[in-house]
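chain below, 333 aa
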Amino acid sequence: MGGKLAKALSDREGGLVYDTRSLKVGEYLTEWLSRSLKGTVRASTCERHEINIRVHIGPPLGRIKLKNLTPAHVHRLLSEKLDAGLAPATVRKIHPTLHKALSQAVSDGLIPRNAADVKAPRPAPKEMRPLSEVEARVFLEFARTSGDRFEALYVLAISTGLRRGELLGLRWDDVDLERGTLRVGRSLVREGGRHTVGETKTRRGRRQVNLTPRTVSVLKSHRKRQLEERVRLSGLYEDQDLVFATSTGAIVSPENLVKRSFKPLLKRAGLPEIRFHDLRHTCATILLGRSVHPKLVQELLGHATVAMTLDTYSHYLPSMGDQAGGAMGEALG
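prediction:
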């Protein structure tokens, strides 16, 4: 098929009018993936678009002629995916793939408008369940007394709010234990069915974080154990300079971390079964609950705006209204 679209574009650029009446959506999307997308985005992003097209978009829309595709087709696609039980958040990831591809078709002059200019279904936000201060202390104490190899990871997760991928992508080169700081600039990405370490996507995601004395101490102990492990395994250790690695130095599978360490630790500590991401929420709610300025929390978490921080966590701060009333009362007497 590549020839059809290539000829269409070549003829258009040469000032010729090419008849695109026979060009089908599936043919166009296949060509778009190889011609316009590859090399311009992360491999993991390209892989996600490819899966969306192959699994979700191609089967129902692929045989429709590109010029005949309408917003009604796109609406029906998204609605049918929801009706089939697909999570709203997943459906919302399908929509941008189609929109991006059709935007290119509009730019290339193949169609007059983007049929995916429709409102995608909004996913219901997942209910967060942060740990209280007491629960967080209990959790970390169980991690310490049980000798969990990821104790330092949990201390870092709760004290800094780093995402799971950011934690597992950290390298010792990013950490300055003397100054008590670390640089967040990498994260795990999934490429070709396996995890690799890649650059953080956004500018806000790249940030410097100050560490508490306890975090520095735990990281020093963790580093010492890791060096001993490396010496003990000698030639079997695959040193990638990762702060958190398997016993042989390889990248830790996020799924294995949750299944083999995080969930069992919660159970032993008698704590509710929360998501790993709730440790990030725990960091934010503890700091905001202790009246740390939201702007500082935003910068620590790497949120795009302080409004995002407040929108996410304001309902966990029931005392804010009382504080505002008390402050006004004091001001006016």
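The longest strand covers residues 186-191. The radius of gyration is 25 Å.
thats it, cya
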